[in-house]
Amino acid sequence: MYSRTQNENGTYNTRCLYCFMTIASAVETDRELARLEARHICPERALAELLAMEIAIESRKQAS
Ligand SMILES: [Zn+2]
Questions:
Q1: Mapping DSSP to helix (H, G, I), strand (E, B) and coil, where does residue 1 land?
Q2: Separation of 8 CA from ligand 1 center, angstroms?
Q3: Residue 63 alpha carbon to ligand 1 centre in Å
Q4: Beta bridge partners of residue 57, listed in sequence order
Q5: Ligand 1 centre and the CA of 64: distance in Å?
């Protein structure tokens, strides 16, 4: 999940909504934004997914 904002000169900034890090600024095209966003490896998101996985495993254990 990313938050894109546009600058006065028409370029874009994009920020990760998980770790609130600015991934890129003054990007000129949508395609470039998508490329840079795809390249972001988010520590917060990885952690959130790991926790979700553990919760799923735990709840499965309790069910059986
Ligand atoms: Zn992030």
A1: coil
A2: 25
A3: 33
A4: none
A5: 35
